[in-house]
Amino acid sequence: MKKPKETTEEEDILARLQERVEKAISTIQELRRERDALRAKLEHAESGASERLASLEDDCARFQRERDEIRNRIETILSNLESLDA
């Protein structure tokens, strides 16, 4: 009589273990999918940030050139005005 009870307990234990293992596998798979999605999102964001940074660096260089050109023109105009005073 004891054997059937032990077998049932063992079967219950094995069934619970199998359920927990399957749940763990499912959770791991979901976490991996989530990780992969986040990695793809991060790569896309980094790519966009790199492009934006390059664009801002180009704008900065252009503004610096324009500023230098304006400064040179102002100096030329001031020089011309000073020559009129002399």
Percent range for β-strand residues: under 5%
First CA to last CA: what distance? 126 Å
Radius of gyration: 37 Å
Please state the average pLDDT score: 93
Protein architecture, described:
The structure is a single chain. With 86 residues, this protein is mainly alpha-helical. It has one domain. It is built from 1 helix and no strands. It has one helix at 2-85. It is rod-shaped, with a radius of gyration of 37 Å. The termini are far apart.
How would you summarize what this structure contains?
The chain is mostly helical. It has one helix and no strands.
Features:
0% strand; mainly alpha; 86 residues; 1 helix; single chain
